[in-house]
């Protein structure tokens, strides 16, 4: 299983496919998904994104 993270909305999406980078995000439709190293979200991963909690 691989985790892809949308750089636009910060949404995580999971798929077994290893080649889904830059696929449209399932949440916002933005083709800005990047393959992440881990399945679990890491602290600081959202640095520089618009997400602000
Ligand atoms: Zn998104």
Write a short abstract of this structure.
The N and C termini lie far apart (27 Å).
Strand and helix map with partners:
Layout: E1 2-6, E2 12-15, E3 33-35
Antiparallel strand pairs: 1-2, 1-3
The chain binds zinc ion.
Zinc ion is lined by residues 6, 8-9, 11, 25, 27-28, 30.
Describe what you observe in this structure.
With 53 residues, the protein is mainly β. It has a domain at 2-35. Helices cover 0% and strands 23% of the residues. The chain contains no helices and three strands. It has strands at residues 2-6, 12-15, 33-35. It has a three-stranded antiparallel beta sheet, with no helix packed on it. The chain is globular and about 25 Å long. Bound molecules: zinc ion.
Beta-strand fraction estimate: 15-25%
- What is the straight-line distance between the termini? 27 Å
Strand numbers in spatial order across the main sheet: 2-1-3
Strand count: 3
Keyword list:
3 strands; binds zinc ion; 3-stranded antiparallel beta sheet; 53 residues; single chain; mainly beta
């Amino acid at each position: 299983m691989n985790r892809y993270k949308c750089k636009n909305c910060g949404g995580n999406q999971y798929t077994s496919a290893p080649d889904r980078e830059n696929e449209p995000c399932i949440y916002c439709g933005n083709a800005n998904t990047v393959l992440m190293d881990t399945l679990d979200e890491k602290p600081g991963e959202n640095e520089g994104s618009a997400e602000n909690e």
